Amino acid sequence: MIEQLLARIHNKSYIVGIVGLGYVGLPLMWTFHKQDLPVLGFDIDEAKVKNLKSGTPYIKHLGKEMMQSLAESVTCDVTTDFSRLKEADALLLCVPTPLNQYREPDMSYVISTTESVAHYLREGQLVILESTTYPGTTEEVLIPLLEKYSGLTAGKDFYVAYSPEREDPGNPNFNTAKIPKVIGGHGDDALKLAQALYDTAIVQTVPVSDTKTAEAVKITENVFRSVNIALVNELKVVYAKMGIDVHEVLDAADTKPFGFMKFTPGPGLGGHCIPIDPFYLTWKAREFQENTRFIELAGEINTHMPQYVVEQTSKALNTHRKAVNGSRILLVGLAYKPNVDDMRESPAIELMHLLEELGAEVAYYDSYIQTIPPNREHSEYTGRNSIEWKKSTISEFDAVLITTNHSDINYQELADWSSCIIDTRNAMKGIPPKQEYQIFKA
């Protein structure tokens, strides 16, 4: 059977099913589609499916061309009907893996999706989990559920692999096709099949010994980033008290051609990966009576950064003889990183919450996010709209807090229109303050 399936991949009659059409699943669908493989997308969100069928963008940085091409294609289809799962030869699961209120893994999306897949699983299908998770998830959660509800046996009747997503939304230099793909299989046949599939569309595949090793690779990548961001965030606080600009230090250190890798401080961690994934490993390590002190310390530092920014905002307002309580504060940027409409785990939302708790009246401007969509932690902000970018509006705020350094923002206009700017992203670099106590770094 494996040889027949490999032949179908080679002649491009192999149907790729993608479950979850968000920031990971949608570009993955596009990547396989561009290589002329038939693609079938699944999502429980009827609005996403409707937008895909009509070619209407719902992730801004991916653009209209992708959506229109997918909508017009005769080899690409999308549906909310999960009974059609059996039509696909491979099922790539791209679903969220958040934390619960106790900062423990919330596997509900993986479990519910796997159970749905299992009810329609047929012989010969390949199931690949792409969601970031703790080492052991594929063997301990995915496979038992698939076998329980399907009555089939992994490695004999169907195949299972793990290949973590490595998306970097908005990065113009690296799209899905250009990022090497790590793959771990449940057995040699599963690895061979998964590698052959990704080889059709991805620049390079990186096979590893098993699924838990592949799971550990993704966790390690994000732990590395979390720890180093925590380091520069801590340096920012220390150097600020010494009267040293941490950004100038980092820029100068970055000229060293070896032994240094530049990370940038900010108002806190955002995105679906770095604020969440390290805690998956921390949670799993307890099963083996191991403590992850380094990871947990980095988490504490990064989690505290919004509170630090609020403190710096209070100091900035004090120089203008104003308190946070009663002040009107504008957040510039709601997305977690520049030039995307992605606000998952954005520190800007936490900053909005903290400032309002202190009595501030808070608004935001973000050209990428005109209206705040539903979010898990602060549902009270759902539906709040961005203000207009104009002098008469922005000059009325007591302070402007730059939380995301979008490239389409005119920072010179911001300097001209506002008397108090708190810059968490070094966005005002090169723009001289027009008066004392105008621009503060936080």
Features:
442 residues; alpha/beta; Rossmann fold; 2 domains; 8-stranded mixed β-sheet; 5-stranded parallel β-sheet; 13 strands; 12% strand; globular
Helix/strand layout:
Elements lengths: L1 H9 L5 E4 L5 H10 L4 E4 L3 H9 L8 H10 L3 E4 L10 E4 L14 H13 L5 E4 L7 H14 L8 E4 L18 E5 L2 H12 L5 E4 L2 H31 L4 H8 L23 H10 L6 H26 L9 E5 L14 H11 L3 E5 L25 H4 L4 E4 L8 H7 L3 E3 L15 E3 L1
Helix pairs in contact: 1-7, 3-4, 5-6, 8-10, 8-11, 11-12
Describe the structure.
The chain has 442 residues and is of the alpha/beta class. The protein has 2 domains: 2-210, NAD(P)-binding Rossmann-like Domain (Rossmann fold, 3-Layer(aba) Sandwich), CATH 3.40.50.720; 225-441, 3-Layer(aba) Sandwich (Rossmann fold), CATH 3.40.50.720. The chain has 14 helices and 13 strands. The chain has helices spanning 2-10, 25-34, 46-54, 63-72, 108-120, 137-150, 188-199, 211-241, 246-253, 277-286, 293-318, 347-357, 391-394, 411-417, and strands spanning 16-19, 39-42, 76-79, 90-93, 126-129, 159-162, 181-185, 205-208, 328-332, 361-365, 399-402, 421-423, 439-441. Helix 7 links the parallel strand 7 and strand 8. Helix 1 (2-10) packs parallel to helix 7 and helix 3 (46-54) packs across helix 4 (63-72). The radius of gyration is 24 Å and the shape is globular. It starts with a helix and ends with a strand. The relative contact order is 0.08.
